[in-house]
Amino acid sequence: MYRHAGAGWSIRPFVRNDRVPCLRIFRDCLRAFPWRGEWQAFLPALQNAFASARVLVAVEPSAGVIGFLTLNVSTGYVDHLFVQEDWRLCGVGRGLLDVARTEAKQPLTLDVDTQNMPARHAYEKLGWHVMADAKPSRSGTQVRLISP
Ligand SMILES: CC(C)(COP(=O)(O)OP(=O)(O)OC[C@H]1O[C@@H](n2cnc3c(N)ncnc32)[C@H](O)[C@@H]1OP(=O)(O)O)[C@@H](O)C(=O)NCCC(=O)NCCS
User: Fold this and answer.
1) Is 92 in the pocket of ligand 1 (CB under 6 A)?
2) Among the atoms of ligand 1, which is closest to the Cα of residue 112?
């Protein structure tokens, strides 16, 4: 599906055995978001996405799953994008979004927590723009962004 020539990781569709490593990445990422509260509160939405959305995983031969994304292909909405901390700033997020953009055949959208400045910086570098004013959500305040 996509292979990073230098870094050795690749992107492929989710299979059942990816569920546990994806959940681990999800848990570790959400624990780093103190404004969100208990990470388990967000599990049902993820389980629902695993069942109904297009799920892409980034894998590296020795590390296994290092990131994943869930996408509603018909709307281009990205529900989840999480990269394991050790593998950030290596192009994994960009790669997942590029594959998702190709599959959706339309600009992607997502909601990012206003407090999540690292992710907001990343989306800015990737050329995303604010699409709608910040609005309250169950996880605080979120901004809707749109990709190039
Ligand atoms: C946001 C996230 C998915 C980005 O993934 P990533 O694999 O680190 O991103 P990439 O390495 O592909 O970086 C893409 C671009 O963003 C930049 N970037 C990434 N993180 C950045 C940061 N914290 N600050 C500034 N720029 C950043 C990169 O430098 C790169 O730009 P460049 O190509 O011009 O150098 C990742 O940090 C993450 O999983 N965070 C925790 C979970 C999260 O916040 N998810 C998003 C929820 S909406």
Assistant:
1) yes
2) 48
How deeply is 97 buried, as exposed, middle or buried, from its count of CB atoms within 10 A (0-12, 13-18, 19+)? buried
Tell me how far the alpha carbon of residue 82 is from its chain's centroid.
4
Q: Check pocket membership of 78 for ligand 1, CB cut-off 6 A.
A: no
pLDDT of residue 94 exceeding 80: yes
pLDDT, tens digit (0-9, with 9 covering 90-100), for 15-60:
999 999 999 999 999 999 999 999 999 999 999 999 999 999 999 9
Q: What is the DSSP string of 54-72?
A: EEEEEEETTTEEEEEEEEE
pLDDT digits (tens, 9 = 90+) for 136-148: 777 679 999 999 9
Placement of tokens 């980034």 in the chain: 58
User: Which of 110, 86, 107, 89 has the alpha carbon at shortest distance from 98?
Assistant: 107
Q: Please give the domain boundaries of the chain with CATH numbers for all domains.
A: 2-106 (3.40.630.30)
Q: What's the pLDDT at 113?
A: 94
Residues 6+ apart with CB under 8 A from 104: 71, 73, 76
